[in-house]
């Protein structure tokens, strides 16, 4: 079974945790745009320097930059038979660009999972993570802004995938292992 999966959901819904577990279960690479940006920030690359300004403000990195990065990543060998995208696409322009990349490769998406969680829960989780990990975009103001940007720019994308019959909504509240099982069941 080839799996080309998108994981979508607000910051703090647990996408990163679930992406790693699903990738393992399905033997596909988990591709997190947030992780790739953070690795570039840490390595002080040109891409990292550019991305950092946006990330620290809770804004999205410009589409052209993000799209190019994802195109490069998806063209690597390990993504040929399948992949799980965590944190991409996040804008309508990114949806269009991903469609173009998939068409060019002669492939299509298998499913889009929307991991849901209410705002109070995700703010609480992100604040708890901020205390532990100290991510530079985890201050309360920036967290609130990231949630607004998500609601405005990314949440509407679920309608596009719902219309295509690809969307599976999964409750992101509960035990980690239980949520993984829910997602796998929803994809079957
Ligand atoms: P979260 O889901 O908790 O917001 P991520 O690790 O997915 O965090 O992303 C962190 C930051 O990286 C985002 O706030 C944004 O600045 C940038 N980023 C990640 N993915 C994208 C994307 N697809 N488009 C634009 N910016 C992105």
UniProtKB/TrEMBL annotation:
PANTHER family reported for this sequence: NUCLEOTIDE KINASE
Chain positions recorded as AMP binding sites: 33, 38, 59-61, 87-90, 94, 135, 146
InterPro entries in the cross-refs: Adenylat/UMP-CMP_kin (IPR000850), Adenylat_kinase_CS (IPR033690), P-loop_NTPase (IPR027417)
Function: Catalyzes the reversible transfer of the terminal phosphate group between ATP and AMP. Plays an important role in cellular energy homeostasis and in adenine nucleotide metabolism.
Protein known as: Adenylate kinase
Pathway(s) this gene product operates in, as recorded in its UniProt entry: Purine metabolism; AMP biosynthesis via salvage pathway; AMP from ADP: step 1/1
Keyword Nucleotide-binding: yes
Binding site for ATP: 12-17, 129, 174
Region (NMP): 32-61
Sequence intervals crossing the membrane: none
Gene3D superfamilies reported for this sequence: P-loop containing nucleotide triphosphate hydrolases
GO annotation, biological process: AMP salvage
CDD domains registered for this protein in UniProt: ADK
HAMAP family in alphabetical order: Adenylate_kinase_Adk
Group of enzyme by EC: transferase
